[in-house]
Prior knowledge:
Elements: H1 2-22, H2 24-27, H3 38-43, H4 49-57, E1 64-71, E2 80-86, E3 92-98, E4 104-110, H5 112-115, H6 121-126, H7 131-141, E5 146-155, E6 158-166, E7 171-176, E8 182-183
Antiparallel strand pairs: 1-2, 1-5, 2-3, 3-4, 5-6, 6-7, 7-8
Helix pairs in contact: 4-7
Amino acid sequence: MMYRLAAAAGFLALSSGLVLAQTPAAKMDANTDKDLKEYQRAAVSKVTLAQALTTAEQQGEKGRAIDADFEKADGKNPNHYSIKVVYPDGKLVEYGINADDGALYKTENQPIERYFTRLKPADFQKATTSLKDALKIAEQKAGGGKAYEAEVEREGASVQYDIKVALPDREQKVKVGPDGKVVD
């Protein structure tokens, strides 16, 4: 009887350890595991894309984020979000936000002409849904998960947000219109 209890306790401990080893936080260190896909790294980052957008938009007056990408650590830079913010005067700035501590570590002015072909700064100011609001909508539509990439496109006379959401086993793309409605 004692042997069975010890064996059962050992099996329980072993199986609990296996379950823990499979959880995202225990399974991977987002900065060091080279085998992780981008969405897996983004899923375990400490800073959300919405938090990174807030940090970037707070760097200047009335700027609106128009593009956000999660980028893996490359030896020179940590896992980070690269966020482009456009200002009413037409200035475009790219901000680098550390995905682990939320710190701003890079600011770079970008030529707006190279980025836009059909979009104008006024198009973003007219949209009733911000990129940050579109992230929340996309995460809800995907059934949870964590948005990690977003870009803005022109659709008709307004903008549309294309968002990637990291789920435990895959990524899901969601499109959100300027009015906050999910586009199929």
